[in-house]
Amino acid sequence: MNFIDKLERRFPRFGIPNLMKYVICVNIAGAVLGLIDMSGVFGVQVYANYLSLDFNQIFHGQVWRLITFVLYPPTDLVGRNMMINLIWFAIWALVYYHLGLALEKIWGTFRFNLFYFFGVFLVVLASLGFYLFNVIQYGDYTAELFGYMIGGATTLEFVNETVFLAYAMMFPNAMFLMYFIIPVKAKWLGWISIALLGYQFVRGIVDGAYYGVVLIVAAVINLLIFFFFGRGKPGAAGQYRERKRRQEFHRRTRPVEPSSAGNPNGGRHRCAICGRTEIDAPHLEFRYCSRCNGNYEYCSDHLFSHEHVK
After folding, report:
1. pTM
2. What span, in angstroms and rounded, lies between the C-alpha atoms of 301 and 283?
3. What does each C-alpha distance from 59 to 68, 123, 153, 237 come to in angstroms?
């Protein structure tokens, strides 16, 4: 039993069901907030001045920022092509909503919540460490400056990206339509995502944008920790569904008693690949394949190696 299994047994009711729905709602609220800030309705940047992860203000009593920073508005939402950006944001929200639902179904509510919230926690922890490092290095008089700069740059973009990476690891053969035309498997999109993260990591080091590097490292560490300790396997709910599927498979593939008239040597079972029956090879077992369309029976040598009939 691994570490995550022990946590799930100890806190079985921890977690918010359908968490991704609320994550998307928070992102939509952040998008609306970004539009309001850009319009200048209040004459002040609401997010930067009151909601961001500014540790200088947090240490002066504004502790709500530890939660409200998740309302970070997408930086590319507004601009010359605002309508196109809004459409892409809506597509992003729809895709990630379904990714989160799929992961929660296979992992269970506890594991998915733990994965996402621990990623958020690591972002806060890494941001705090980066802030304290710079303040100690450059002096207390820089606390306000670094607090404002870090607060305005703290985002959960990379945490959300690891949701897709986790999905690609769990469902590598799931198909996506890139640009609604080109079918691509999730595993290849996952490798592209990893390559882009690597590029951003190297680019951040070269350009001296070290805080972006810190956020990438925090998100990737969360992904690695989760899969190292939890192996990314299903939680209690997912394991229950897996057992049900296995029982259904065995029920559908248990030996039947077909007529022996169709087999030349009188055998009751005949492999659709090699043609052998239990008379020819008594040591073999014969099963029907649940993934083939039709009643196709195979010997144990070909049950898992044949091409499925569609």
Report:
1. 0.70
2. 11
3. 15, 17, 18, 41
